[in-house]
Amino acid sequence: MTIGSLQQSLASFAAERDWEQFHTPKNLAMALTGECGELVEIFQWLTPDESTTVMDDPVRAARVREEMADVFAYLLRMADVLELDLERALADKIEVNRGKYPAHLARGRADKYTQLGG
Amino acid sequence: MTIGSLQQSLASFAAERDWEQFHTPKNLAMALTGECGELVEIFQWLTPDESTTVMDDPVRAARVREEMADVFAYLLRMADVLELDLERALADKIEVNRGKYPAHLARGRADKYTQLGG
Amino acid sequence: MTIGSLQQSLASFAAERDWEQFHTPKNLAMALTGECGELVEIFQWLTPDESTTVMDDPVRAARVREEMADVFAYLLRMADVLELDLERALADKIEVNRGKYPAHLARGRADKYTQLGG
Amino acid sequence: MTIGSLQQSLASFAAERDWEQFHTPKNLAMALTGECGELVEIFQWLTPDESTTVMDDPVRAARVREEMADVFAYLLRMADVLELDLERALADKIEVNRGKYPAHLARGRADKYTQLGG
């Protein structure tokens, strides 16, 4: 399974149901957000420690897996509709962030790069 | 660039900065949501039609690309921390959805599967 | 019903169930986001025009009302826990925005204030 | 400052700038979500304990106040556009939740009402 073949599956799924009319970037951004909201709900009352073992509970693990798949689906679909190469975009972003967050300045700090000094 | 190698880059990036302490699933779910919020802001005042040509404007295109990369980054990082196979999860979800949304019932309808009858 | 009395009701509700332990600002921010996600889901496939008549459908109207109440509940609860005067904060923000968005520059434009020139 | 007078201020602000065209319920739901995302970002790397003292830092306190005001603004504006009485909706919701979450069953538990048994 590659990103490209998953996007192809999602595109066929939409085309077979005449759903392309709904899949504008605006609507897909909303759908992505809605799925993120469902994912967040699973974690909202857990402590950070509890969240690290969430997959030990089969019921919760299945929900996490399903919601993350939904987020991924809308993200891939949106990238496809926008003709945006998501893997390339992320690889580029990681490079940019290497410059913004030098390891010796950012070590152990959750600050934004604008606050790192240097 | 595969999902696995991007996850490896993100893991190294975090390890080099001693950021693993911040990357609990709970915190990553929040970060994912925050990035989705930034993505949605680009589209909030656009009409659906305007949203389909958002990539024609280089300034907006760069913002969309960057925010989608951020969403993707936190999604991949979260999957890695949870040891969850995102591509497998999505492939499985598409199969489940084929059963929930039969093409002949779902055609042209944006309803939830519970409302499709059949 | 005032904001203060609603906050008092929400505080009692939480106290009676020993839920104060869960109501940290971090957790409440997550819960707020989760409810926003459910609200967005109602609107994601609607056109902007369809969204303006969403209250004509009694089933959808009830969902909108319920999700907006949930968003409001977590927002009020969070403000209460942070001892933040939400009405004062908003009144102040409106004043600030009068300066950022002069009517003669912002008329009919959905741009951020940094792009308004002047 | 009451909800009604704040909504009146927000409506005038929009009318003076000819922004009513942008304020469809769909768009306002997106804007609300975007502001929630900015609020969540403040808390994403904080521990729950750190989040309880977020207002002790004047810089962070100002950001929290501003983002919560923005969330409140779009929630009030959306309720106004939908002609929905937010205070009544919340008061009703609290009553419904008293039935769903009996204190003796829900005490100290962050479970959904469907899991409370009883």
TrEMBL record, chains A, B, C, D:
Q: So which residues are the signal peptide here?
A: none
Q: Which CDD domains match?
A: NTP-PPase_RS21-C6_like (cd11537)
Tell me which SUPFAM superfamilies the record gives: all-alpha NTP pyrophosphatases
Write down what this protein is called.
Nucleotide pyrophosphohydrolase
- Source taxonomy: Bacteria, Bacillati, Actinomycetota, Actinomycetes, Kitasatosporales
